[in-house]
Amino acid sequence: MKNNLTLTIGWLYPELMNIYGDRGNIIVLQKRCQWRNIKTEVLRLDVGFAKEILEKCDILLMGGAQDKQQEAVAKDIFAKAKELKTTIEKGIPGIYVCGAYQMLGNFYKEANGNKIEGLGIFDLYTESPGQSKPRLIGNMVEYCEKLNYTLVGFENHGGRTYLGKNIQPFARTTKGFGNNGVDKSEGAIYKNSIGTYLHGPLLPKNPLLADHLIKQALEIKYKTKIPLKKLDDTLENQARIAIAKRLSVAI
Amino acid sequence: MINILIILFGKTFSFLSKRFNLGHGSTWPGHIALKLNPNFTNQILNKSKTEVILVTGTNGKTTTAKLLQTILETNGKKVILNDSGANLLNGIASTIILNSKLNGNLEADFAIFEVDENTLPQVTKTITPNYIIALDLFRDQLDRYGEIDTIARKWKDAYKSLKNTQFILNADDPQIAFLGNGLTTAHYFGLDSKGNNIEEHAADSLLCPKCANRLTFKTHYFSHLGDWSCAKCGLKRPNREINADLFLPLRGTYAIYDIQAAALLAKLTGLTTEQINQGLKNFRPAFGRQEIIKIEDKNIQLFLSKNPTSFNESLRTIAGNNAANLLIVLNDRIPDGTDVSWIWDIDFESLIKKNMNLYLAGDRVYDLALRIKYSDVNILEENIFENLSEAIGKGMLETKANETFYILPTYSAMLETRKIITGKKIL
Asked: Which of A100, A176, B155, B290 has its CA 20 to 30 A from that of B44?
């Protein structure tokens, strides 16, 4: 393996979109690179960042937020919609959790029928069921066929998301609610970008997914497959199994 | 008439339930009372001279209520306090029943009710308090309480109808300070400190509560508390009434907020600094809040920690005490919050000293261990415990005579830890 590998991680709106411990995803990517002698640089892309920076990013991450914060971010991100779309279409791997996932869709329909426009990069929409319906909350387990991997985590969302024709679900729920609590789909995958409701945060307890992102990013950047050194994931697996056991799922 | 029956029945019920150890003694009389007469609480309170104080906020409610109780009692006042429990209105009604005479007269100068963030609007619909202390609003248990902006909005609506209530508000917390905007009965406390310019990862409220512009901070004390202002709409931290001459019975930045808040309210009731300090000197920490439990020649000190902010502050205080042995216990039961993702917002990287023996336990011990692993702090496999008693036993064994074993638990973990220690199961 080459010795001077570097990856640039673009963290979209860390200051405002960070409510579900999303910082954990960044830490996990950084550490799993560091332990393999891959240098990382994390760019904090807060409101007002220069859109050209997106071209420099090898991986993108964006988390969830409260309504007010989300409105502030929406204003900023709409001005960069074209550049973000180009980056995603190019196949730059990314994880978009909860609020970020919804924002990439076509629209968000509020309980009163009011439609908030989305970025339209993911062919999906989200509906608020109103105050009378419960939020979808709890530990969950899901299976991702593409990775042949069972993911564990926590979901907490009011909105129900429905996928369009031009996008695939990221995973199937084994235990938990998923996109809408009805069709067993969870998240969405388009090119190398993953939208999901799974946090906890997502990457610490799903190290295979973290490594998958790193591999994809390296392959795109260096235009060749670069094998990753195996790491000791004993603790990661113990944490995964603890949750699966509690939900009576074998993994 | 009905209220007399309710009080008679409630007292009898409570006596029997204690006598025969039936449990639920603290909220059932209230439950029945409100079923029989939904206006029971305000009828009794309106008739009495008791002044009602509500204490709310994410961190520090219990400590502030206890500080205030001690200050007022030291100065000859009769004070009643509610058991903070799952069903608050029932708990409040029960407290009133147990402290009333049969003729419905409440025998207390002050009633202090600890009210959690979400139930405050409900409580102020029933009770018109003389004082409300609002300490802070941090992200806490998103799975149960929802987002802090929603809570702040509900509070602001609730406060509007309280024309004769004195508000004691934290000026350093933008969301809390804004609650007093436009009120003539608002008093502000805060921290008299130089602070620092480091932004923590746990910062929650960085947007202006009035116009949603990004706030500017001249100094940060911790999380989003500090000297803030909005460049767009001009909203800024209000002037504070800080008492620099207070005796401090607790350590740590957030404890100082609790002390300043309690002292400011005590001053509004007419007490002097000297009288307040006499009370502060009599103060003993509440259950698990920096509480020290002595076991033979060693001390155990409990630092209840419920969210990234209180965790960071507890770790900072513990590191400042040069702790040699620290146990962290993470549970994910309803009172702790079932989502543990917030542990990734704790700054373990800078707050765990390399020479500290660290032990981990709790329902989510492996999530905790994973978080620690990724903060580059070395955690020994034999110090990760699925069994809490064993973890406490090991920590006690490693703690030298006359030294302190520090334990940092979440809420249910604190109760469990206390049971093990006071039940002497470890010995």
From this structure: B155
Q: What is the pLDDT of residue B417?
A: 95
pLDDT grade, residue B334 (50/70/90)? Answer: confident
Q: Compute the nearest-CA separation of A212 from chain B (Å).
A: 18
Q: Is the pLDDT of residue B319 over 70?
A: yes
pLDDT of residue A44: 95
Look up residue B414 and give its two tokens.
Answer: 């604190």
| DSSP of A138-159 | EEEEEEETTTTEEEEEEEEES-
Identify the helix (H) or strand (E) that includes residue A241: helix A234-246
What pLDDT score was predicted for residue A48? 93
CA dist list (Å): A112 to A109, A124, A130, B171, B282: 8, 19, 8, 36, 55
* pLDDT above 70: residue B204: no
- Cα–Cα distance measured from residue A229 to residue B183, given in angstroms and rounded to the nearest whole number: 62
Is the residue at A1 inside a domain?
Answer: no
CB within 8 Å: A156 and B201: no
Confidence of residue B27 (pLDDT cuts 50, 70, 90): confident
Place of tokens 């490693």: B398
Q: Is the pLDDT of residue A191 over 60?
A: yes
CATH number at residue A197: 3.40.50.880
- Measured between alpha carbons, how far is A23 from A26 in angstroms, rounded to an integer? 5
Question: Which run of H or of E encompasses A239?
Answer: helix A234-246
Residue B31 backbone phi and psi in degrees, to 5:
-60, -50
Residue A199 appears among annotated catalytic residues: yes
Helices (DSSP H) in A48-182: which residue ranges? 67-78, 81-89, 99-103
The interface predicted TM-score of the complex, written ipTM, equals: 0.95
Active-site pick, A33, A57, A157, A199 = A199
Q: Is the CB of residue B19 less than 8 Å from the CB of residue B79?
A: no
* Amino acid letter for position A233: D
A19, A32, A76, A139: best mutation site toward chain B, by most B Cβ within 10 Å? A19
Average pLDDT over residues B217-227: 87
CA of A57, closest CA in chain B: separation in Å? 22
Domain count, chain A: 1
Question: Which residue from B127, B134, B188, B131 is spatially nearest to B164, judged by alpha carbons?
Answer: B131
Considering the domain boundaries, does residue A251 fall inside one? Answer: no
Tell me which residue range forms the domain holding A13: 6-246
d(CA B225, CA B173): 5
Look at residue B90 in the predicted model and tell me its pLDDT: 85
- Which residue of chain A is at minimal alpha-carbon distance from B366? A239
DSSP helix, strand, coil percent of chain B (3-state; round to 5): 40, 20, 40
Which whole number is the average pLDDT over A70-95? 94
Quick check: is A151 in a domain? yes
H/E element, B223: none
CB-based contact, A19 to chain B, within 8 Å: yes
Show the domains of chain B with their CATH numbers.
Answer: 56-78+108-281 (3.40.1190.10), 289-422 (3.90.190.20)
Q: Rounded to an integer, what distance in angstroms lies between the CA atom of residue A171 and that of residue B75?
A: 64
Q: How far, CA to CA in Å, does B86 sit from each of B21, B115, B116? A: 20, 10, 10
Of B201, B214, B373, the CB nearest to A23: B201
* Across A13-17, A144-148, A201-205, least confident range: A13-17
CB contact under 8 A, B370 and A23: no
| pLDDT band at residue B425 under the 50/70/90 scheme | very low
Higher pLDDT, B155 or A139: A139
